[in-house]
Write a structure and sequence with these properties.
Elements lengths: L20 H13 L3 E9 L5 E8 L5 E6 L5 E3 L6 E3 L12 E4 L2 E5 L8 H9 L4 E3 L6 H19 L2 E4 L3 E4 L4 E4 L2 E4 L5 E5 L12 H10 L2 H4 L12
Parallel strand pairs: 7-8, 8-9
Antiparallel strand pairs: 1-2, 2-3, 4-5, 6-7, 9-12, 10-11, 12-13
């Protein structure tokens, strides 16, 4: 997950897509271990001189299945050591949602602050998503207050599995601290697996039969009387 010093410092590490060594290395790892790898997120130069906060999905042979540029920029004030976050100073917002086909289901992509915007997740569900991934670097303050409840809400609303890999620890000589609590949440809102603190990994078997049963018994997509969300590309 992309998380460094001040937002402007990310420009030092950004390259265009073709020359991104990090992208090439991640693709090689997917191929080496024959896994579908959601690699998010890395800095990629945008057309206006800023950067995209980009998540890639690599297939088992290292080819790119798709990518997603973070839509919602974190311009907020937080009661922590950093105080004010201004992603828009260096980052360019994305222009599309992404759902990719994988051997284990249709995979929707989101990043960090996106979790607060239910319309994005509804749009991913309507685009066919069965699983939604969310790499994140939630601050300790906001994570402690909202992380788990937001993940469970988005999973329940979309009836999707939500896979959230979250950074944990102290960064930048104590200037920033992230909450962690990586989680796998089921479509009923149940916590399938989690790692509250520390670095490491999680594994779980996702029962897609349960997902389809929940959607059949409670067809909320058919019942919703509100119009489908539309992305405002002018923002």
């Amino acid at each position: 997950m992309l998380f460094g010093g001040q937002e402007s410092q990310q420009l030092e590490y950004a390259t265009d897509e073709i020359h991104s060594q990090l992208k090439q290395d991640l693709a090689a790892l997917a191929s080496q271990y024959s896994v579908v790898l959601v690699a998010g997120s890395i800095p990629i130069l945008a057309e206006d001189g800023r950067i995209y906060n980009r998540c890639y999905v690599f297939d088992t042979d290292g080819s790119t299945l798709g990518h997603y540029d973070k839509l919602h920029l974190f311009d907020v004030e937080v009661a922590d050591g950093t105080k004010q976050y201004r992603e828009s100073d260096a980052f360019c917002p994305g222009k599309h949602i992404t759902v990719v086909d994988t051997p284990f289901g249709k995979l929707g992509l989101a990043i960090c602050y996106d979790i607060r915007f239910a319309d994005l997740f509804r749009a991913l569900r309507e685009a066919g998503a069965e699983i939604i991934t969310l790499p994140a670097a939630f601050t300790k303050v906001t994570g402690e207050a909202h992380w788990q409840v937001l993940l469970q809400a988005r999973a329940i609303e979309t009836q999707c599995f939500v896979l959230a890999a979250a950074q944990w620890g102290v960064h930048n000589d104590g200037g920033r601290e992230t909450w962690g609590q990586s989680m796998i949440v089921g479509p009923w809102g149940d916590i399938v697996a989690q790692k509250p603190t520390g670095t490491g990994w999680l594994s779980a078997e996702l029962n897609m039969c349960d997902l389809h049963a929940i959607r059949t018994k409670m067809p909320i997509i058919k019942h919703n009387r509100f119009q489908s969300p539309q992305l405002n590309e002018s923002c």
